[in-house]
Write a structure and sequence with these properties.
The chain is of the alpha+beta class and 135 residues long. It has 4 helices and 6 strands. It has one domain. A hairpin with a 5-residue loop joins strand 5 and strand 6. The chain is globular and about 60 Å long.
Length: 135
Amino acid sequence: MRFMINLIVISVFLTACSNLSKSPETLRHNYLAITQPGISMDETIPLIKKKIQPEGALIVREGTPCLDKESLERQKGLHSIKVNLGWYYWGVMKTPVYGEWCFNSNKTLIDIIVYKAIDDFQHQQFEHSAQPSLR
């Protein structure tokens, strides 16, 4: 019993210590303060790397819009940067967190979408089905 209590306390502590455990909307708001709408795609990349310091890959996707997680058929912008922001533990479950920086035709930032791995499976399925087939 003591082991279980210690495990729960450690899990709660790890979750509370992670910035990424905040809500996607809170993270979006924080990231918009760092990478403000209107900045160029080229200006955004070093800001993400230096000030946000993602733990995973940063992929520049020219010609690939962001997908709105609330409504997957609705796209935002014409270009995007997808970032694996890192992960946190929720209890014993590891939860990856992703961000997409959305850019218009002039490659200026218009919005940011933040989502967690729980949402990612549905998103990946939509991206895969939306891509044109190669012949």
